[in-house]
Specification:
Layout (H helix, E strand, L loop, with lengths): L1 E4 L5 E4 L34 H8 L5 H4 L3 E6 L11 H14 L3 E6 L5 H4 L8 H18 L4 E5 L5 H12 L3 E4 L9 E2 L2 E2 L3 H11 L5 H10 L12 H12 L14 H20 L9 H14 L5 H11 L6 H9 L15 H6 L2 H9 L15 H4 L25 E5 L2 E7 L10 E9 L2 H9 L7 E5 L14 H9 L7 E4 L10 E3 L20 E5 L4 E4 L3 H10 L10 H9 L14
Parallel strand pairs: 3-4, 3-5, 5-6, 11-12, 12-13, 13-14
Antiparallel strand pairs: 1-2, 7-8, 9-10, 11-15, 15-16
Helix pairs in contact: 3-10, 5-6, 6-9, 6-12, 7-8, 7-18, 9-11, 11-12, 11-13, 17-18
């Protein structure tokens, strides 16, 4: 009841009744007539009233269906630490979408953990999930004609898969990550992380660490959820999304447990609705300018070698072909200005405190396409206006870099005719040229056991082959081998080369992505124990000290191995995956 005045000015009691929304409550249209809103093509009456009924069965109203439908592609689960907080992140993205006049619709996306999968057969599945993630986002967005999508992911193959989907779909899209974990206890001169356990295993087996110390590390190396705190592939790709322009400035490195992570997630929800109104779609951002900016940023950061797989794949989905030679020119002309573990003790949360990606972009903006568009609706040059200099103990200026050479490098030579990739930024200067004797292993497990058994000696070049995209299949990471070499005190005395790949946390002397891979008949297949191999990162060369005639003779007697898998996901992947130098993209109908 409410007190109101009648016509004579007398106060009377009057009952106020709130009508249900569907009774004489037609909502004001929130979609502008000149907007391209895909969802309206399958929600308009009367033709699509069946679809409206399906939406109403879940509680959506006429009012909701008058607004743009914004997908939230959420890879939340409780087995991947980097994704453990994405349910809460999604809540704040949803709030922002509502605030800006959109209707959020959330769906799940698979996500695997490289860390949990490392060192066993499960790691073969991780790279193939990149394409499954891309396809699942594509399928959900297209099947339901969503108007835009906010992509929630944090880890190694999830972020690349989502960026590939954004490029493929060409609708408004923003990547919002869950943020890095905090660093663990201090040990061996730096904050620990999950890779400390692999280093510790080498120390344990060599008698350099007690069982009690090893067990204590297990409890302290990763104190919070979030993507692993070092600059591995996960955090590299999150940072690169900012350089690409598909993430809000500063969002990549906010730690998972900070309240700022929730506020910027809400901001992303508001911004994605604005992008629908502006018609700002992903390929206006993910184009050649954006890809080249991302490559330069990865070199300035000294990021993971896996970007040599992921950026070509993202570019491919956007209709941009980028070669390894083009990438190397950008690497080589972009100084290494930010040092983060494994190149230095600082972890990603410390890098965030030092200024993060915006501070790095400020330093290298003269090398970038400053006019490239970003999800803010502004260019990179506009985004960094007012950004302060970074902490010089972590982020240096372009005039005073940590290294004039980039943090990443592409090698070629008679052992890698179609190139290979390495990371000088994480290699001690004394090891950037290394010659040693080959110790050959036809798979990761065999090599790992030899390292633990003390069979690898100073001066050896560990050769791990048949681990490429097709031969693996799945191109496993050789992170365990490198970490155990470190733990046994061999990081500055040995090298490792492979047609597999590495974690962004690896340091020491290593070369991966050797192409053609051994299973395709690349020269790596015919290396023999005792052969001399030279890795020269300065000259960009990987050389087997065997004559061309001898290489040809050995290849003539080499037999292609039988596929390890002929059914299921890995059987399919081994048939469709391209070479590592092509980004291991799936080629259908070739």
């Amino acid at each position: 009841m409410l007190d109101v005045n009648d016509a004579a000015g007398k106060t009377i009691k009057k009952e106020i009744r709130w009508l249900p929304q569907h009774v004489n409550c037609k909502p004001e249209p929130l979609v502008e007539k000149n907007m391209t809103v895909r969802s309206q093509t399958i929600l308009s009456r009367p033709k699509w009233s069946s679809n409206r009924a399906l939406m109403k069965s879940m509680g959506y109203s006429d009012y909701d269906m008058e607004k743009p439908l914004i997908g939230i592609a959420n890879s939340w689960n409780t087995i991947v630490p980097g994704h453990y907080n994405l349910r809460q992140v999604a809540d704040y993205v949803r709030q922002g979408i509502y605030q800006a006049g959109g209707t959020p619709v959330e769906f799940g996306v698979l996500a695997g953990c490289d860390g949990v999968a490392t060192g066993h057969e499960g790691n073969r599945y991780i790279l193939p999930t990149r394409d499954l993630i891309c396809m699942s986002v594509e399928a959900m967005v297209e099947a339901h004609k969503l108007d835009a999508v906010v992509l929630l992911g944090s880890c190694d193959k999830i972020v690349p898969g989502m960026l590939m989907a954004a490029a493929r779909l060409d609708i408004p899209a923003i990547l919002m990550v869950g943020g890095p974990s905090e660093g663990g206890c201090e040990y061996d001169g730096r904050s620990t992380d999950i890779t400390t356990m692999l280093e510790g295993l080498g120390m344990l087996t060599s008698g350099r660490l007690s069982e009690e110390e090893f067990s204590e590390l297990e409890d302290k190396v990763m104190p919070t959820c979030g993507s692993c705190s070092f600059l591995g592939t996960a955090n590299t790709m999150c940072c690169i999304s900012e350089g690409l322009g598909l993430s809000l400035p500063g969002s990549a490195t906010i730690p998972a447990v900070y309240s700022a992570r929730l506020r910027i997630s809400q901001e992303a929800g508001r911004r994605i609705v604005e992008m629908v109104h502006e018609g700002l779609t992903s390929r206006k951002i993910i184009n050649r300018k954006g890809i080249e900016n991302a490559i330069r940023l990865s070199s300035a950061l000294g990021g993971s070698t896996n970007i040599a797989l992921h950026l070509p794949a993202i570019a491919h989905e956007a209709g941009v072909e980028i070669t390894m030679q083009e990438m190397d020119k950008l690497f080589n002309s972009t100084p290494h200005v930010a040092r983060i573990y494994p190149a230095a003790p600082a972890n990603v949360p410390q890098f965030h405190g030092a200024g993060g990606v915006p501070a790095v972009i400020k330093e290298i903006i003269t090398l970038m396409h400053a006019d490239a568009m970003t999800v803010t609706g502004k260019t990179h040059a506009e985004n960094i206006s007012g950004v302060r200099d970074g902490d010089r103990s972590i982020i240096r200026s372009l005039d005073d870099p940590w290294s004039v050479d980039g943090g990443l490098a592409v090698l070629s030579g008679n052992l890698a005719p179609d190139t290979a990739i390495t990371k000088p930024g994480a290699v001690h200067s004394s090891m950037r040229t290394f010659t040693g004797s080959a110790r050959c292993f036809d798979g990761e497990e065999e090599a790992n056991q030899a390292i633990l058994d003390g069979k690898i000696q100073e001066g050896d070049v560990v050769v791990i082959r048949y681990e490429g995209p097709r031969g693996g299949p799945g191109m496993r990471e050789m992170v365990s081998a490198m970490k155990m070499l470190y733990g046994r005190g061999l990081a500055l005395k040995t090298a490792l080369i492979t047609d597999g790949r590495f974690s962004g946390t690896n340091n020491g002397c290593f070369v991966g992505h050797i192409s053609p891979e051994a299973a395709a008949g690349g020269p790596l297949a015919i290396v023999q124990d005792g052969d001399q191999i030279t890795i020269d990162m300065t000259a960009r060369n990987l050389h087997l000290h065997v004559s061309d005639e001898e290489i040809k003779a050995r290849l003539a007697t080499w037999s292609r191995p039988q596929p390890k898998y002929t059914t299921g996901l890995l059987g399919l992947y081994s048939q469709l995956a391209e070479s590592a130098d092509k980004g291991a993209v799936l080629r259908i109908g070739k």
